[in-house]
Amino acid sequence: VNVVEALQEFWQMKQSRGADLKNGALVVYEMVPSNSPPYVCYVTLPGGSCFGSFQFCPTKAEARRSAAKIALMNSVFNEHPSRRITDEFIEKSVSEALASFNGNREEADNPNTGIGAFRFMLESNKGKSMLEFQELMTVFQLLHWNGSLKAMRERQCSRQEVLAHYSHRALDDDIRNQMAMDWVNREQNSPGALSRELASTERELDEARLAGKELRFHKEKKDILMLAAGQLGS
Fold first, then answer.
1. pTM for the complete prediction?
2. 112-139 core/surface letters (b: 16 or more CB in 10 A; e: else)
3. What are phi and psi of 41, to 5 degrees?
4. If 3 and its partner were Cys, which of 68, 136, 141, 233 is the partner (CB 3.0–4.6 Å)?
């Protein structure tokens, strides 16, 4: 089986069956520049989820196949009914979150608490798959990592307002550029902050890639930091 073709055909089939793919069904590959093995390739699926080659790849073609293989496995697995967000799934997830953080039931019903916000996000995405939910959560992970959520709280924005705004906002170049500017400012205030964050992000990205995990959060972080480094360089 040509796994690269199989992955593309899978997403074209999803689109032909009515899947809402805002940017079409194209699967995008990105090779990490290198003159010698091991070669590394990332693949971004139409919804935004990202996977990478998870084996030692002696050729660029092998790296592409490795990335396609893990992406296809996840794409197919994601279609299983158990991967849909249902009422039962929401109750189970919220109960587990309460147990992990020693929370109480009232917190789960208050959208201004962390667990309440988590519940609100799950409720808003009922019927969607886990990959679709993860794509949305990546935006909030980045806002948290970048300190944007903290800044919004300081401006008295409620969690509900932030969730309502960003739940319908795709991760675009405006958000990336704004975050990159925040890192330019951090670097100017504290020289070395950018290179430390980039080194730690590259380590996390490599570990997650070799473990076959979904990579968009780590990959977006790296791209934002590289954008900031480019702005500082120019």
1. 0.86
2. ebebbbbbbbbeebeebbbbbbbbbbbb
3. -135, 140
4. 68
> Can you state the angle between helices 216-233 and 130-146, rounded to 10 degrees?
40
Helix (H) / strand (E) element for 56: namely none
CATH 3.30.160.20 fits 1-78, yes or no: yes
| Whether 165 contacts 117, CB under 8 Å | no
Domain boundaries, the chain: 1-78, 83-167, 171-233
The first and second tokens of residue 140, run together, are 């909030």
Asked if 11 contacts 45 with a C-beta cutoff of 8 angstroms, the reply is yes
- The residues, any chain, with a CB within 8 Å of residue 65's CB and separated by 6 or more, are 3, 4
Which residue type does 116 have? G
Per-residue pLDDT of the chain (234 residues; tens, 9 = 90+): 699 999 999 999 999 998 888 778 899 999 999 999 999 999 999 988 999 999 999 999 999 999 999 999 999 998 888 889 999 989 998 898 888 877 777 777 776 777 888 888 888 889 888 888 888 889 889 988 998 888 888 888 877 788 777 877 778 889 999 999 999 999 999 999 999 999 999 999 999 999 999 999 999 999 999 999 999 987
Q: Is the peptide bond before 38 cis (omega within 30 degrees of 0)?
A: yes
The DSSP H or E segment spanning 101 is none
Residue 39 is classified by DSSP as: P
Length of the chain as a residue count: 234
